[in-house]
Amino acid sequence: MALILRESGQGLEIFFIERSQREDDPWSGHMAFPGGRLEEVDADTRATAERETLEEVGISLAEAEHLGWLTDLQGSPRFKQNRLVVTAHVYHLNFTGSLVLDPMEVASALWFPVDRILDVSTHVDYTSSVSGTMKFPGVEVGEPGRHVVWGLTYRFLEIFMETVGDPMPERSISGSPPESWKT
Questions:
Q1: CATH number, residue 133
Q2: Degrees (nearest 5) of the Cα angle 57, 90, 65?
Q3: Tens-digit pLDDT profile for residues 7-26
Q4: Would 161 be classed as within a structural domain?
Q5: N or C terminus of the chain: which is more exposed, having fewer CB within 10 Å?
Q6: What is the dihedral of CA 49, 54, 56, 58, to 10 degrees?
Q7: Nearest-CA neighbor of 87 among 146, 147, 152, 39?
Q8: What is the rounded CA–CA span in Å between residue 146 and residue 127?
Q9: Looking at 5-9, 20-24, 146-150, 178-182, which range is the least confident one?
Q10: Residue 101: which pLDDT band, with cuts at 50, 70 and 90?
C-alpha cells in the first residue's frame, strides 16, 4: 500500500481512499491507503504500491519521492483465508491534478491535514459491523461516521506518526481487541 503525502495550502496532507462496497471484499467501505495484492508483473511490494495507486486513483508515483518502507503488518486472524502480510511504502509528491477513481475499487478519496490527525476531536471509537459491539480506535478524516480510519490502516497511521516523532494521543477504549489483533 502507498501512504502518500503532499504539501497544500493547509500544510502537509495525507491521502485516503474509501473502498467500494463489494460482497466479496471483507474490507468493503473501509477507509484505507491505495494498494492491493502483489502480482507477477510486480518486481516487489514497492512496485505493487505504485501500480495499484495508478490503477485505483490515477496517481502516478513514478516521479514521487519514495521516502521509504514503513513496515509490514499481518492482517486480522478473523479472516483466516485472507491472513495477508500488508506492506506500506511512504511517498511525497506534488499533486494538484484530478483523480481518476476505479469505481470497482474506490468509492471516494480525500486528502486530510496531517496535523489534524493529532487533534483529539478527530479521534473516535469505531464499532465494526463485523465485530458487533467491539470498539476500535479510529480517526475521522471526512464525513462523520463514514470516513473513519480504523483497524490495519489506523495501525499504519499510528506507526507513521510515531516514526515522524508525533505520536498519536493514547486512548483507552472499552472492548479493545485482543493483543494478537494489534500485531
A1: 3.90.79.10
A2: 85
A3: 999 899 999 999 999 887 77
A4: yes
A5: C
A6: 150
A7: 152
A8: 12
A9: 178-182
A10: very high
Residue type, 108: S
Number of domains in the chain: 1
What is the pLDDT at residue 82? Answer: 56
68 is a domain residue: yes
Query: Which residue carries 477504549 as its cell?
Result: 173
Given a cut of 80, is residue 55 above it in pLDDT? yes
87-105 average pLDDT score: 94
Are 51 and 42 contacting, i.e. CB atoms less than 8 angstroms apart?
Answer: yes
Antiparallel, parallel or unpaired: β 106-113 and 11-19: antiparallel
